[in-house]
Amino acid sequence: MTAPTSVAPSPAGPAGPAGGPGPGGSTFQRSGPRPATTRRALRVLAVFAVLIVGYAVLAAAVGGPSTSEDYLDVRSPKPGGTMALAEILRDRGVEVVAGGDVASALDASRAPDGASDPDRTVVVVEPGLLDRFVLRDLRDLAQGGADVVLVEPSRTVLSALRLPIDVLDSASTASNEPDCALPEARTAGSVTIGSSYLYGPPEDDPVTPPIDAEVTYCYPLEPGSQDTQGAAVAVVTQPGGSGRLVLLGGGEFLTNDQLDEDGDAALAFGLMAKHPRLDWVIQQPTSSEPVEGMGAVDLLGDGFWLTVTQLLLALLLLALWRGRRLGPPVPEPLPVVVRAAETTEGRGRLYATARARDLAAESLRAGLRARLADRLGLPPHGQRGAAGTVRAGAVAAEITGPDPASLIASVAERTGRPAMEIWALLYGSGGQGAPMVAPPPSPGGWPHPGPPGPGQPELDDAALLWLAEALDDLDRQVGGR
Amino acid sequence: MAITGRAAALGFLGAVAVALAPVPGLVLLLVNFLIIVAVLVDVALAGSVRALEFSRSGPRAARLGQPVPLVLTVSNDGRRAVRARIRDGWPPSAGARPRVHSVTIPAGERRFLEETLAPSRRGDREPFRITVRSLGPLGLAGRQGRHQCPWRVRVLPPFHSRRHLPAALARLREIEGEVAIRGGGAGSEFDSLRDYVIGDDVRMIDWRSTARRGSVVLKTFRPERDRRVVCVLDTARTSAGRVGAVSPDAPHGPGSSAGPPAAVGDGPRLDHALDAALLLTAVALRAGDRVGLIAHDSEARLVMPDSTEANLLARMSEAMATLEPALVEADHEGLVSTVLRATRRRSLVVIFTELVPAVIEESLLPALPALTARHTVMVAALRDPRLAELAAGRGDVHAVYAAASAEQTLLRRRQLTEELRGRGVEVVDAPPDRYAPAVTDAYLTLKALGRL
C-alpha cells in the first residue's frame, strides 16, 4: 500500500452521475440478500422445520419400543430392563443365564454326545439377527422338549422357521384378555402387552410349504375374532414334540417398568418357569447371514453417522463460504460485433445451395472485365446494354461494363491469345436461354463468335472451377498495372 | 455477514474430532456450538463497513491502449480497525487490476488503494459498486456491505493513425511552399511579394509593383487558409460491421490478447472512421482550416460546429469516445440537411460511410445534389480486405461461389464509386491500413488544387 503524495479531491463533478454523493463521499448501502429473498429462505426453513418436527412426532408415536441398549436386558434394573423378572425366576429356583449369542448358548448346553439338554427355556430377543440354521436348531430344540420364547419375531423370522403363521399387523395394541385355551394365559388373565406384532394364519400360500404344527393364538386384537384380527401371542406345538415355541408379539410386558401391571408377571412366569434353567439371549449382530438382512450400514456405529453429519455441516460451511460473492457480477452493455463480410459470405453459400452456376460464372467474368478495363485504361462503361444480360431463374440483371469489342481487342493484343478464346472466357456463351451477347463488330479481322451450339451443355461445378482458373490465368497474362 | 474458508476448515476439523472422539454425539454438538459462537463473536468484533468513506482520484480520460492509474482512498471513521477485502467493481472491459484489495485500515486513518485500468474498448467506463468484506479478528467471518463512489473514465479513440501525421504534415509543408522544392508552393491565395530570382516563373511577376520599386518583383501564392472541413460520420448499421482481420481464423497469439487490439487491426467501421477523422482533423488544423464534426444515423448524434481552436482535437476525441454504431438505417436526407444547417459557408464535407448499394442509391444519391451544390463532397469508404481474400478464393466449389459473391460485391462498389464520381464527389476507397492516410491525402490534394 503506497500513499501518493497528493490526493485529488473526491470526484464529484460534471462527470459523476446526477444525484451522486457530494464531495468526499461515498454512500453506504447494506449488502446482502434482498428482503424478498430472506423471506423466501425463512419460509423454506419453516417448512423444513415443520417437516422434521412432524416426522419426529410421527416416529415417536408409531415407532415401537425404544431400542435402547438396556431393552429386555436381564442384568439391567432400568425401566426397559428385565432384571425384576430374572430375580423373580431365580427366587423360584430357575437358573437364569444371560447370553449374547444363541449359537454359543446352544453349544454350551450341549452334552458331550451332542444331544441338547431339553429341560430348559430359551428366550431370544432380536431373533431377526439369527441366521436360518440357528433358527432351525431352536425349532428342533422346542421339538425336543425345551421351551423357546422368541420376542418380537418378524415375518422373515417366521418364514425362516417355516411356521404356518404370518404377521397380520404390527404395532397394534392387543386386548388384555387371553381368549384362548393356553393354561398359563388363563392363569394370568388380563395382561397389558402394549404395542406388538399381531400373528395369525397366513392369508395366502407361502412360497415354501410350512411345517405341520398346531398353533394357539392368545390375546387377540378383539376377543372372539382372533382368526382375522391377529393375536399378540402365538404358541406353536409341533406334532410329536413335547416343547413349545412361543412367539411374543411384544416384549414390553416383560420389562421392569410394566411387569407389575395386571397379570404380566404371571404370564411371563408361566411361560418361562417351566424348566429349571433359562437362557436369556439378547442376540448380537454376528458375521453370519441374519434372516433380517443387515447391510454394512447396520454394522456402522453411531460414530460413523455423527461424523457424516459433521462432514455435511462442514460442507454446508464450505458452500456458505464459496457461495457468498464479494459483490455481484458487473453488467456491461456490449456493442454489436458483426463481421462486415458476412453478408457476402452468406450470399456465396446461397449460390452454392442454389447451384447458381451461371450467376456465379457471370459474376466472376464481370469482376475480371471491370479489373481488366481499369488496368488497360478503358472507360469503365460501354453503351448501356451492350454486354447483354445474365439470367438466374426469373431474375435478369443487365451487365454493365466496359465496351466488349475494345476490351477484347486490348486483351488479345496484350496476351497474344486468340480473340475468340478471350471472348469465350470473358463473356462466355451466355446463360442458357438468355439473349446472346451482341456479336461485337469485327475491327481488323475480328472473328464473329457464334454460340457454340444450340444445345449448350449446362455449366457444372467442374466447369465453374475450370472457368475460375482460366480467368485467373488470363488475369496473370494481362499483368499488372 | 460472510464466513471464510477458515470456518469451513474448522468444520472439517470438527469432523475429524467427531470421528476420533469416544463420545461423538457430545463432540458433534460441542464442535458446532463452538464454531457458531466463534463466528458470531468474529462478526460482532469486525470493524464496521458502514463507517468507511471512499473517494477516488486519477485521470478522467485516456486514450485506448494507455493504462489508467486510479487511486481509491478509503478512510475509516469507525471505532475499530477494519481488516477488509475490498472489491471495486468495474465492468470487464475496463480491465481493472487488482480485482480485490486486501487492506487493514486502523480506526481514524485512511489508506490509498492503487488500481490500474486497462480498457479494452473506447467509451465511458464507470465503476459499478464497491463491495467491502470486513473480517473479524479470528478471520472466521465478517460483515459485508457496499458503497457507491461514482467516477467516470472516458476512454478516447486510440488515434492509431497518429503515426501517419509526420508524413502528412511534410506533404502539407510542401504544398504550402515552406520547404524549398522545385516549383514552389502551390495554391491560389496571394501570400507576399519578393524579389525575382532567375528561374522563377515570369508569369508571376507583378508588373505594377515592379514599376513602383524599380526592381523585378514577384508575387507568391500559398494555399487558401481558413477553409472549412466537416467530418460526417455515418453511425448507422453499416458502421457496425467489423473490418480488419484479414482472415477469420487469423492467429491471435497469447501476446496479442494481453493488450487492446493491435494498431490497425480489427474493429468496426466506425472505429476506423474515427481514426481517419482524427488524422484529417489534425492535418487540417495544422493547415489553418476550420474543422467540424457531425455524427448521424437516423438522427443527428453529434454536431460540433467548425472551429479552429487549439484543443479541438482533444475535444473531438472526447466527443467521439462515446459514439457507438446504432442498428438503424441511415437517413442520408437528414444527414444532408444537418450538414447544410451546420455549415453555411462552402466547406469540404467528408462523409465516412460504407458503399452499400441499397443504402447509397436509395438514400444518399437523391440527397446529394443539395450538398454538392454548396459544398465539395468527399465520400470515404473502407474496403474490407476480406472481400479481396474471398474473391481470390479458389480450390473448391464453395470457395468459387464465395469468390463470385465477393466479385459481385466488389463490382457493385466499383459501379457505385463511378456513379458518385460522376456526380462530382471525391471517393476514397481504401483498406483499413491505408484508410486514414488515404483520406488525408485526398484532402491535401484538394487543398493543393485549390478546390476547397
Automatic annotation (TrEMBL), chain A:
Keywords: Membrane, Transmembrane, Transmembrane helix
InterPro entries named among the record's database cross-references: DUF4350
Positions of transmembrane segments: 41-62
Segments of skewed composition (Gly residues): 16-25
Chain ranges of the DUF4350 domain: 76-271
Biased composition (Low complexity): 1-15
Comp. bias intervals (Pro residues): 437-455
One family name in Pfam for this protein: DUF4350
Name of the protein in its database record: DUF4350 domain-containing protein
Record organism: Frankia nepalensis
Upper lineage: Bacteria, Bacillati, Actinomycetota, Actinomycetes, Frankiales
Automatic annotation (TrEMBL), chain B:
Location of region: Disordered: 242-266
Record-annotated DUF58 domain positions: 193-237, 271-397
InterPro entries named in the record: DUF58 (IPR002881)
Residue spans of biased composition, Low complexity class: 247-266
Regions crossing the membrane: 29-52
Keywords carried by this UniProt record: Membrane, Transmembrane, Transmembrane helix
Record's signal peptide: none
Protein name: DUF58 domain-containing protein
